[in-house]
Amino acid sequence: MSSGSNVPETVVPTLRPALPQPSAWRKIFIGPNGVRAGWRLALFLAFLVGLQLLLIQFGLRKIPAARAIAQSSKAGTLTAQFQIMIEGAGIIVVFLATAIMSRIEKRPFGTYGIPLQSAFGRNFWQGIVAGLAFESIEMVVMSALGGFSFGTLALAGGALVKFAAVWAIAFLFVGILEEFVFRGYTQFTLGSGIGFWPAAILMSTLFGAVHISNPGEGWVGALSVALFGLFACLTLRRTGNLWFVIGFHAATDYAESFIFSTPDSGLMAQGHLLNSSFHGPRWLTGGTVGPEGSVLDFALFTLMFIAFAKFYPAKRDAAVQESKPL
């Protein structure tokens, strides 16, 4: 007789060994997506400081020509040769530190804001045009309000061509270095830990703060620099790289220091185009700070935020994208 019983067979559950819990030390250093952002940033800064000491402090100082260029640069003034030397060395240092981190993290170098295939492309030249327009509008309005005179030409002939070229190179280097230091690897990594905009606010505040040490700079100018940093982060967010703001940064500095021959963050350039002058209230001219300390700078940046947000709309797939915390 068949034992065709309807009683179900007893299922014996399979016991799996409990997974080992991560140690407290591992939780400190490792997050759900690998090494935590703070430790990666600390490692990057260690490489940055080490390379700076090696290549700039111990390297350039042992070169007689470099020492002569440094000694010729007086407090409160800028020389194109000194800027090219220091900013160029700084670019090498930060690029090397970032390249090391890109190998460690197994990410392409361009992930950190400067994709080389886009170098000096459309975004860059749009930034150049926007920067020249921004500074020109500011100085024309300031002049119309009685706070600025263009004066006469301070350069002519070969000297004009020479200084126009070397200052263009110098401020291009300034744009690349400052944008990549504050909005390259640091912004990417810090943003992966705390979110893009919290990181942008923190780095932009630091960006403004470091300018306070410049002779002639003040807290209003530093606040303007911080506002510039937030605008730079908006361009990074909307374009996906730093090339627009590198062009914008280089062009505004070039226009302030060389073309309109005004202080830039409290510093005057040697070999500028015009014998220009301020003759108005500090709130209008910026005083020793230069146009960055003017109320016009804040008004124009407000318009720039609005215009850039309109003409460079957020991409649909990136509008809600936020880096996951590490």
Query: Using only CA atoms, what is the Rg?
Result: 26 Å
Domains, number = 1
Mean pLDDT reading: 88
Helix tally equals 12
**Main β-sheet, in a few words?**
2 strands, antiparallel
Keywords for this structure?
single chain, 326 residues, two-stranded antiparallel sheet, two-stranded parallel ribbon, 12 helices, 6 strands, globular
Describe the overall structure.
This protein is mainly α. It has one domain (35-311). It is 60% helix and 4% strand. The protein has a two-stranded antiparallel ribbon. Helix 2 (37-57) packs antiparallel against helix 4 (80-105) and helix 6 (157-183) runs antiparallel to helix 10 (243-259). The longest helix is centred in the middle third of the chain and has 27 residues, at 157-183. It is globular, with a radius of gyration of 26 Å. Residues 317-326 have low confidence and may be disordered.
